[in-house]
Amino acid sequence: MSFAPIPASVRQRALDWYGDRGRDWVDALPATVAGLAAAWDARPAGDPFTGGTTAYVLPLDRADGTPAVLKVDLQDEENRSEPTALRAYDGDGAVRLLEYDPDSGAMLLERARPGTALLDHEFPGLREQHVARERFAIACDLFRRLWRTPVPAADYPEPPKAADLLKGWAEHFDAAAGRSTDVSNELALGVELCDALADADEIGIANRDNHLSNVVTAVREPWLLIDPKPVLAERAFDGGYFLFKQQLHGPLGGTELLHAVAEGLGADLERVRAWAMLTTVAQIADAGSAADREAYTGVLRAIERA
């Protein structure tokens, strides 16, 4: 099988973000892809998708005609347990995991068709504000369905625990406060939130990367989740990044957004607020410019006031 070249943006991010490990991954890709395609009896059905960050994603057709997608991640803490989550979902609201290679972490996935992202899906006849509400309702209903008790399985990595993330964030915020005195109050608030959220009494598979581009149209179900980044956490965790992202980009925000997300997830409103604020503080701590810190600080205040 001839190798379809890795998209330039994916290659560059792998090299920029991971250095030698990224170069090793890029260099090994042709042999990895050829070996897996042969093992799973599949042939390319188009060019690699270009929208990923550090994943090679190639549409394939299996010998029996099944349309599929080969996904080879440059693995890190966030994406390593994606197959674990997809196995647990078993196609209920998410693309099916068809095959998994523990050695490379690569997956053969159901190809969702037509695969239009919820963020781009049009709802003819609805005004902009109503379109936004419809998108939030669809997304939150799906996130609520997907939260479930984890089932350990051999060869599948355990997702990170929210308790460990909280500990790491608190340490990170303390260290960052010495370098970013202009947001020291925000970072101190982040430490307080880490402590306040450490008492969750219900743990399941949550997702740290919930957003409207990771929900796509399909035939088997109207909407399917792709690209989960699982964390063992409470239900309210699912609202953290999702609410931050929507508050940042609009069109809805404030009280309406907070209530819509909490009610849609079936989670405690104040804990959803706290996770969203904490997620925002994490963005502030890692912001690359004063302009970004200012924008994220505005998001933090809006969520706090909502």
TrEMBL record:
InterPro entries: Kinase-like_dom_sf, NH2Glyco/OHUrea_AB-resist_kin
This protein's UniProt keywords: Kinase, Transferase
GO biological process: secondary metabolic process
Keyword Iron-sulfur: no
UniProt keyword annotation of Kinase present: yes
Gene Ontology terms for molecular function: kinase activity; phosphotransferase activity, alcohol group as acceptor
Pfam families with a match to the protein in the record: APH_6_hur (PF04655)
Superkingdom of the source species: Bacteria
Name listed for the protein in its UniProt record: Kinase
Organism, scientific name: Agromyces albus
